[in-house]
């Protein structure tokens, strides 16, 4: 089954990858390992998962203004998401999207992508048009 969601294109480009959905977002500080790209936030539902090559589906950012710095450090170590899907883009998420320069969409009006996309789904993010094509894992 495949379906398409519509949002606002935030960072141009197209990327595909396996979804990593984090309805509670991820902390920056002590949330993502700067050296492995692994989610290290204690008690996080996706603790132990790696962000590398994945489409990160998040409601927004979480934590301090340094949120984007930790994703940037992970990128410098070779661990970078393929793309971003943000329910709503806040300033920290916007900075991270620009710094990483991977395709991003945001600001969904009629749907919460954290509820309709599941981890493991194959997702195509089009930052040019604001579309997200989702193919169910099953």
TrEMBL record:
Q: Which InterPro entries does UniProt cross-reference here? A: PMDh-S-like_dom
Keywords (A to Z) from UniProt: Lyase
Instruction: Recall the GO molecular function terms of this protein's record.
Output: lyase activity
- Gene3D superfamilies xrefs: Phosphohistidine domain
The domain of life is Bacteria
Give the signal sequence positions.
none
Please list the residue ranges annotated as the Phosphomevalonate dehydratase small subunit-like domain: 26-105
Matches recorded under SUPFAM superfamilies? LeuD/IlvD-like
This chain's protein is named: Phosphomevalonate dehydratase small subunit-like domain-containing protein
Question: What organism is this sequence from?
Answer: uncultured Sporomusa sp
